[in-house]
Amino acid sequence: MTGDAAAQTEPRLRPPAESLDPRVKRLWALHGLIATGVVAVLGIVAIVVWSLAGDPPAAALAAGLAGLVALGVAASLVGARIAYRFLRFEVTPLGLYVQRGWITRSWTIVPHTRIQAVETTSGPLERALGLATVEVRTASAAAARIPGLDEGRIARLREDLAAMAGEGEAT
Q1: From CA 134, how far away is CA 24, in angstroms rounded?
Q2: 46 & 28 share domain
Q3: Number of folded domains in the chain?
Q4: What percent of the chain has pLDDT over 70?
Q5: If we measure between CA atoms, which residue out of 150, 119, 148 comes closest to residue 135?
Q6: Which residue among 28, 36, 99, 140 is least crowded, i.e. fewest CB within 10 A of its CB?
Q7: Residue 39 reports pLDDT greater than 80
Q8: CA–CA separation, 116 vs 118, rounded Å?
Q9: pLDDT at residue 17 above 80?
C-alpha cells in the first residue's frame, strides 16, 4: 500500500463540536491564582525566617519571589485560556467524544453501550460560579471527565447519553 492510499484509509477525527462554559476559564484562573498565593505566602515566611536567623540577601530573595509570583499569575491567566481552547466534547452516535490537551493531545470516545455511570461533582469554587464536572464511568474505570458545565448543559448531556444508551444493547 502506498503512502497516499494509507493516508486515505486512516480514520481522521474532527474536533468535537461543543466547548465548555466560558466561566470555566475564571475557575481555572482562580485555582492557579490560589496556588500562586500559597507559594507567595510560603516564600514570604521563608524570607522572614531566614532574616531572623541570619543575614540573607533579602532584596534578592524578595525580587526572586516577586518574579515567581508574576510568572504564576501570568501562567494562571494564560493557561486557563489555552486549556479552554483545547478541551471540547460531543455526544455522537458512536459515543461520548472528548478531546483535551494543548501540548499532549488526547481523544477519547466512550461507546454508549460501555457507559455505566454519569457522576456530577462540584467544589466550592465551581458552585460559586454555577459550574460542575461530569465524569463518565465504564466498567473498567473513569473514561471521560468534562469540567466546567452549567446545570442546564449537564441535564442535556445526561439526557443525550441516556437516549443513546437506550438504542444499543449493553454487553
Answers
A1: 13
A2: yes
A3: 2
A4: 89
A5: 119
A6: 140
A7: yes
A8: 7
A9: yes
